Amino acid sequence: MEDTQQHGPAEDGGAPAGEAPAGSRAALELLVHGVGGTTPDRMLDDPRTVRVTGDDVAAVFRRADDADAERDPGARRDGPVPEAYVWCNLTSGNGTRALWLLLLPFMVVNLAHWMRPSARGRRRTVRLY
């Protein structure tokens, strides 16, 4: 009797054992620095980083080796792909630039108020004059 393993489809209809399911994506780990303004090089512990998205104010960085992680998610087997979100330039500059951080809670509450559904039998808008 031969002692072989067959790698057929899983019983639940998923991918064969040892393979990633079709259409699977690479897992991401988002690293966010504190108020100290740590650089992406230090957060990712690699001097070679590339900007994935963003601009000079706020951006997401990855290691150069992981820049194309979405194209081949099966190639990375040792854990999630680390990404560093760098936002230190949002609060640097004059005081009015950081004012948006203070106003953000009020903007969210205002938005939540206007998004709530209207009561039954009442119009959504009310004439104030």
Describe what this molecule looks like in 3D.
There is one protein chain. This protein has a domain at 28-115. It has 129 residues and is an alpha+beta fold. The chain has a 4-stranded mixed beta sheet. Residues 1-18 have low confidence and may be disordered. The protein is flat and about 60 Å long. The protein is built from 2 helices and 4 strands. The chain has helices at 40-44, 99-115; strands at residues 28-32, 49-54, 59-63, 81-86. Strand 2 (49-54) and strand 3 (59-63) form a beta hairpin. Residues 12-23 have a biased composition (Low complexity). Keywords: Membrane, Transmembrane, Transmembrane helix. The chain crosses the membrane at residues 98-115.
What is the helix/strand order? EHEEEH
What value does the average pLDDT take? Answer: 76
Helix/strand/pairing category: alpha+beta
Largest sheet features: 4 strands, mixed
Task: Please state the overall shape, judged from the principal axes of the Cα atoms.
Answer: flat
Q: pLDDT below 50 for ≥5 consecutive residues: which ranges?
A: 1-18
